[in-house]
Specification:
The complex is a heterodimer of chains A (about 350) and B (about 650). Chain A is mostly helical and about 350 residues long. Helix content of chain A is about 75%, strand content about 0%. Classes of the chains: A mainly alpha (about 350), B alpha+beta (about 650). At the A-B interface, helix 1, helix 2, helix 3, helix 4 and helix 5 of A face helix 1, helix 2, helix 6, helix 8 and helix 20 of B.
């Protein structure tokens, strides 16, 4: 059984308390000690008397009100006479059994689905005492920040704190620190690449135009810079040019020293892209094909399936107007053939261009 | 305290809720006192266990226990203490836990203080409460468990949404939930009455304090939310007809109708079936409000939950409770015995009129809020129903309601005399016309209708108080008699007058803000001065300020009024470091009930800053009005006496009445 003795003791005590909350009232011999509506109406009668004495209502109104309330009292008395409250041992035993069995069962099963009794709480203060290393980082950052607030022109300080920010996930501050270091200490390939890295982290992993410009400056300073090269490859991939990304990363692998720490990352990235495949048709190739189809149909418009293909192609290329125009000429040519128009309507609905 | 203890306590509460859902109803059916008697202790037990769970979660926030996912996602070790606490309910999981805590708290109150209730009624009420509790506990444990753990635990959290790091929003959700959940009590009473198949004036007496309490909290919650939006969102608006706001307004309108129809029921035993329906509708709208906000079907600043599984679960709860209770209503309501009769022109008639307008207004808000959602779900088209729709549907319904609201208390129960009432309201009419003329004389610009509305507001305030003034015979009897009568007057009468007057006060604020607002947007450099609403405002400088978990750029503005120093305003652009999220901190200068509102824009590289100035006349009266309304509710709640509406006897006995007066 995982979990500390204290936690399980607490669970047991709480379960016992829950069961007792049911058993105690069951064990108590009970009479019907609830209130009743008769009491409310009697109070209402008293209230009418008080109001009349205080002059809030007139005597005639008080009499009328008293008659009404008296009717309610008679009705309530008739009803309450009809029902007597009783207890039955059998039902009581069923309820007790439910308390003893069902309540703990629901609790244990319900908790068992998600609970982690073996995982103690981790208050931050305690963890700091147990892990002085982490504590050091917190105080280190605080000390550097204080120093930088006093000496904002200290480029070295910015350079020291930047990677710490990045590791803690404070990417925005990492960007600021890297930018300051670059400005104060002068541009190098390393600093340009580091700034771009922070910008990518701040952008949630996307290589922004700003980061890309920095990377290109870094490559201009040092053509084989591994970090800049890696991020440029990532940028190519994100722009939809995986072949280019593969080429950049493959070259970096070739020129890297055999024991370079970044080789593993690059190899797994190349593997992630999958095997190199045949060149895919580019957008302009597709456009050429579609225009060829359009020209052919212009010359000979009897090919119904060709027309449908054309409508679909235009829609895929994002040219809704041309797709509609093509659909209109289909309607003109095949207007007499209901089944074909039906097919067209179905296609238009599928493409989200209405019927 | 381990988070696991909280988790286990929550499951135990579910087990008890399931027990309570079944056994007391069974007991009530069989008239078995022992079974019915379990409801009290089990309700208290449930409340205790949910409280333990809530305490465990709060503890995890206080000690920054980042092994709890919920704490990681919504807290930060440097966050100020108050927001560590408010962070507990500043997120989906925690707020649902708060919802259930309040629900069980209400059940516990019934168990503790419901001694005057007949045993079967109490058992059924607590069982219905347990159905709701069980459904929501299942929902929490299945889809939104706040005690989910993370291993290994991160060393820092992601901080609470900065917009929510505000004292206003720290107390807004609890107030709102006290209102929403409070209406579960009237719902439980209504369903219990339907199960038993009988209902009478005494029922309304027992429901009254719960409905009033819920209404007051809901009023406070909505008002607080509106005030928060006013100063925190930086646009200076106080009501946006945002679906989330509408979600809280709908139960308020239905709840207000419920309060009034319950009065008729308690005093005159009429409108029974209607009151039960309203009780069901009010809580259904509360559930709907929870659904709208919690399922993520809306995209707005409030909706921080986006998860279809949750949405479907809440939808299922919604269908089960609303559909189930309405089906029960359709089946059992025809069996309920109808009560007293009354003439159309009477206090009852006026309250029915009030009910019609309130429910119609509620329906208008309902359509405006849900139509875009339904349309989007069915056709995918996204439309937005903006303020014009609500202004043209809700507004015209409110005006006759407010006119009639003042009339009502002047009419006698059972049969009233409109002309006589109008004669006694001369002071109110005069005040209205005087206020209208005065407004017309002293203001320039603004819509033509604005003075009319100011007149309406004055009519409401004077008319509401005139009813009390008449009953204590102010100025007509010697002062001593008046004071004596004022003491003798039931506090519920004072409550009515004060709450109605609060509506008038709020109306002044609304008209002042919407019709006479001044706005100025300027680009300012340090040293520049502008003139706004009689103030000379000088920008003396822009300064960075470091807060505990944010950085500010503060614009320091010096105000002078007619050459005399009138204080300093410091609006700020704020960036919360953990989420790198900017917010706008508006600055406010109060003059009487009016406010100067300054909202900063971005700082340009040239060193200038865009500043938006609004001058909002009488704006504070909007929220003061709601406070006055709540005070009215409090007065009425404190009146523990029974209420009897003495009917005006039929005409043939009229001479006797006159003799008595």
């Amino acid at each position: 059984m995982e979990g500390s003795f204290a936690v399980w003791t607490m669970f047991a005590l709480m379960t016992a308390a829950a069961v007792m909350a049911v058993l105690l009232p069951l064990a108590r011999a009970r009479t019907a000690d609830g209130g009743s509506d008769l009491a409310v109406y009697r109070d209402q009668l008293d209230e009418i008397g008080r109001d009349r004495d205080a002059g809030v209502i007139g005597a005639a109104e008080a009499d009328a009100a008293r008659i009404e309330v008296s009717r309610r009292i008679i009705a309530a008395a008739e009803r309450s006479g009809a029902t007597a409250l009783e207890g039955a041992g059998g039902r009581r035993r069923v309820a007790a059994l439910a308390a003893l069995v069902a309540v703990p069962l629901v609790a244990i099963v319900g908790y068992g689905l998600r609970g982690q009794p073996g995982y103690p709480g981790q208050p931050l203060a305690e963890r700091r005492q147990q892990a002085p290393g982490q504590n050091d980082i917190a105080t280190l950052i605080a000390r550097i920040e204080a120093h930088l607030a006093a000496n904002p022109e200290d480029g070295r300080g910015w350079e020291v704190v930047a990677p710490v920010y990045l590791r803690l996930g404070r990417a925005g501050e990492a960007v600021r620190a890297r930018a300051n270091a670059l400005r104060l200490l002068g541009a190098t390939a390393d600093r340009e690449a580091d700034l771009a890295e922070a910008q990518v982290a701040a952008g949630g992993g996307v290589v922004t135009a700003e980061a890309k410009a920095g990377l290109e400056r870094a490559i201009a300073l040092s053509a084989d810079h591994p970090k800049a090269g890696y991020l440029l490859g990532l940028s190519a991939e994100q722009d939809g040019r995986p072949a280019e990304a593969r080429a950049i990363w493959s070259r970096l692998i070739e020129i890297a020293p055999p024991n370079a720490p970044w080789l593993g990352v690059l190899r797994s990235e190349v593997a992630r892209l999958g095997p190199a495949d045949a060149p895919r048709p580019t957008a302009s190739d597709i456009r050429g094909m579609v225009e060829g189809l359009a020209a052919r149909l212009e010359a000979d418009g009897t090919d119904f399936d060709g027309w449908l293909r054309l409508v679909r192609s235009y829609s895929v290329l994002g040219e809704a107007d041309k797709a509609r125009a093509a659909a209109a000429s289909v309607r003109q040519r095949f207007g007499a053939e209901a089944d074909k128009i039906g097919q067209l309507d179905a296609l238009m609905r599928e493409l989200g261009m209405g019927g | 305290m381990s988070p696991e203890i909280g988790h286990y306590a929550l499951v135990l509460a579910l087990a008890l809720a399931l027990f309570q859902s079944v056994v007391p109803v069974w007991g009530a059916r069989k008239r078995d006192a022992a079974l019915m008697g379990t409801a009290d202790a089990v309700a208290l037990g449930q409340c205790a266990f949910v409280a333990i769970a809530f305490a465990a979660l709060t503890h995890a926030y206080l000690v920054s226990d980042f092994s709890v996912e919920n704490v990681v996602l919504n807290s930060h070790s440097t966050k100020p203490l108050i927001y560590k606490i408010s962070g507990v309910w500043g997120n989906h999981e925690g707020s649902m836990l708060l919802w259930v805590l309040i629900l069980t708290l209400f059940s516990a109150f019934v168990a503790l203080f419901g001694r005057n209730l007949p045993l079967p009624l109490k058992a059924n009420v607590l069982a219905v409460q347990a159905w709701i509790t069980a459904a929501f506990l299942l929902f929490i444990l299945k889809t939104s468990n706040p005690f989910n753990r993370i291993n290994p635990a991160p060393f820092e959290g992601r901080d609470l949404n900065p917009l929510l790091q505000d004292p206003g929003l720290a107390i807004h959700p609890p107030l709102l939930y006290l209102g929403y959940v409070g209406f579960s009590m009237s719902f439980a009473f209504a369903v219990a009455a339907l199960i038993e198949g009988r209902i009478d004036a005494a029922w309304a007496r027992w429901v009254r304090p719960w409905a009033l309490t819920a209404w007051m909290f809901l009023t406070a919650g909505i008002s607080m939310g509106s005030f928060w939006a006013y100063y925190e969102l930086g646009w200076g608006g106080w009501w946006f007809w945002d679906p989330v706001e509408n979600a809280s307004l709908m139960p308020w309108l239905a709840g207000t109708a419920l309060l009034h129809s319950a009065i008729v029921m308690e005093k005159r035993e009429a409108l029974k079936v209607w009151t039960v329906l309203l009780a069901i509708l009010t809580f259904s709208l509360s559930l709907l409000g929870t659904f709208l906000v919690r399922s993520g079907v809306l995209t707005s600043v409030h909706a921080f939950a986006v998860d279809p599984e949750r949405g479907i679960f809440i939808l299922a709860i919604l269908i089960a409770f609303i559909g189930g209770s309405l089906a029960l209503y359709a089946w059992r309501a025809p069996m309920l015995r109808q009560g007293g009769i009354f003439a159309p022109v009477s206090r009852e008639g006026a309250l029915v009129l009030n009910n019609l307008f309130l429910t119609a207004a509620c329906a208008a808000v309902f359509v405006g809020t849900l139509y875009p959602l339904a349309l989007e779900a069915l056709t995918g088209a996204k439309i937005s129903v903006g303020p014009p729709f609500f202004n043209w549907t809700f507004g015209p319904l409110m005006v006759p309601l407010m006119v009639a609201m003042v009339f009502g208390p002047f009419l006698a129960w059972k049969r009233g005399d409109l002309l006589a009432a109008a004669q006694r309201m001369m002071a109110a009419f005069a005040a209205g016309i005087a206020a209208m003329l005065l407004t017309f004389a002293v203001t320039r610009g603004g819509p033509v209708l604005a003075p009319v509305f100011i007149g309406l507001a004055a009519y409401i305030i004077v008319g509401s108080l005139a009813e009390v003034a008449e009953r204590v015979q102010l100025f007509r009897a010697p002062l001593a008699t008046t004071l004596q009568r004022a003491r003798g007057l039931p506090r519920s009468a004072w409550g009515t007058a004060v709450a109605h007057a609060g509506v008038g006060v709020m109306l002044i604020g609304i008209v002042g803000e919407t019709c006479y607002r001044q706005e100025l947007i300027v680009q300012m450099k340090p040293g520049d001065t502008v003139e706004v609403a009689g103030y000379q405002v000088t920008l003396t400088g822009l300064a960075p300020v470091q807060g505990p978990n944010y950085r500010d750029v503060v614009a320091r503005l010096v105000l002078r009024e007619g050459g005399v120093d009138a204080g300093i305003l410091e609006p700020a652009k704020r960036v919360y470091t953990a989420r790198n999220m900017p917010t706008t901190e508006a600055a406010l200068k109060t003059r009487g009930f009016s406010q100067l509102y300054v909202s900063p824009g971005d700082v340009e590289t040239s060193g200038s800053i865009a500043l938006r100035f609004f001058y909002k006349p009488m704006v504070l009266l909007i929220w003061i009005g709601t406070l006055v309304m709540m005070l009215g509710g409090l007065l009425s709640l404190s009146d523990r006496r029974l209420r009897v509406g003495a009917p005006k006897p039929a005409a043939r006995r009229a001479p006797a009445v006159q003799a008595a007066e």
